[in-house]
Amino acid sequence: MNRSSPSISRRNILRGLGASLTLPWFESLASFTATKAPVRYGCLLFANGVNPHEWDASGEGAAMKLSSTLMPLEGLKQHITVLKDLHVFNNTSGPHWPLFSNYLSGAQFKETLIPEGGESLDQVIARHTGKETSVPSLVLAVEPAESGLRSGVPAVYYSTISWSSKNTPIAPEVYPRAVFDRLFDTTGLLRDKSVLDAVLSQSKDMRRGLGGMDQQKLDEFMHSVRDLELRIERAAKEERLEGWRPSMTKPGMDRPPAGTPQDVREHMRLMLDLLLLAWRMDKTRVATLIFNRDVSHMKFGFLDGVLNDQLHGISHHKENREKLASYQRINQFHVEQLAYLMGKMKAVDEGGGTTMLDNVILQFGSNMFNGDSHDGRNLPMILAGHGGGGITGGRVLDFGPQSEEQQRACNLYLTIAQQMGVKTDRFGDSIAPLKNLGIPA
Prior knowledge:
This protein is α/β, with parallel strands linked by helices. The protein has a single domain (23-181, 247-419), classed as Alkaline Phosphatase, subunit A (3-Layer(aba) Sandwich), CATH 3.40.720. Helix content is 30%, strand content 11%.
C-alpha cells in the first residue's frame, strides 16, 4: 500500500475477512489510524529521605554531572529531569505522619482518628485514563501497610500515597500474585456482575432514607462500585480493531507464586516487572509503587557495607560516618531500581520511532530530603521519560531562587495532570503549571 491509497480501516478489513480474525499492526496503515501510543504516569517512592551530601545533579545534556547516589542513571541522563526545591506546602518538617501519605495530594493532614487527606494525583489521572483500560490504576508496595493507630493517627498515613477521595486512602497491594490476577483473571469480575446489579438497585432505594453525611459515604462507595463496573465492561471487550496496539497481547511471565518473596531485591524487581507488563499490555496507564513505607522497618544488610539495621534508624544518622555511608548505598540501591525500569522501557518499541520511555511520565524520589531532621523543603525528585514529547530530558530545574508559592509540588502535579489529558487548572494548592518543564522554545 502506498500513501496515496484511499483511507481504509482495520474494521472494514475485518468485515471482509470475518470478525473472528485479528490483523497485526501494519506500519503502512499508520497514516489512516490513530497509532500514537498513550502516555502513562507512574510514581516510585522510597521512604525516609536521602543522604543529603550525596544527592545532587548539575549541568545539562551530556555535560550533566550526577552525584554518587544518582550514578546508576549515568547512561540514561538524557531521559531524566532532576527537580530541586519543590515541597508539599507547609509540610516541611516535624513528625513523620504529615510528610508521607500526602506526597501526591498536597493535602494538609489533621491529627484525627478518621483518615482525612485529599485525592491524589494518580487517582485524578486514573479517573481520566481509566475509561480506556480494564484496570484504572495499580497501587503497589513492597513493604506491607500497617493497620490501627500509630502515634495517635491512622497508621495508613505511613503506608500509602494514593487517595481516591478525601476520606478514602487506598491500601497498596504487596502480593505479586494478586497483582497478576487483577490484571489477567476476569472470571471473578464476571461473576461479580450480578452482585453489582443488585447493589446498584438497592443503593437507589437506600439513599432516600440517609442523612447528608451518610449520603456522602454512600456516594464514595458507589464511586468504587462504578470503577468496578467499568473494569468489567472493559474486560469483556478487550479486542482492538483499530489504532495503536500494545506491544504485548499475552503476559510474558508466569503467574507468581503465592505469598511475598522473602528477598527484598526479588520482590522489588517482580513488582517492577508487573508494572511494566501492565503498561505494555495497556491494562492500565497509572501506577504507583512504594518501595518502603514511612518509618520503614526494612533492612538492607544484603548490600555490601550496609548496616543490618532498619532503614528508619539509619536515616537518623546524626552525621555518623558509618550510618551516612549505609544511607547513601541504600539510596543508590533505590536509584538502581529506577534505572532497571527505565532500561526495560527504553527497549520497548511503541511505533512511530518512539519507545515506552518516550511515552511515560515516571516520578521518582522520597517524601523528605534529610531523614535525620525530617526536612521536606527540598524533595529529592526525578522525572524520567518524556511524556509523549512534552518533557525534555537531560536537565536540572532548580526552583530555589523562586518564590515560595512557585516551589509548591502541586504546581508540578497540575502540570503532570494536564500533560496526561486531565482538563483542570487547579490541583491541591497549586497556583499555576510549571512553565519550564516542557520543550524550550
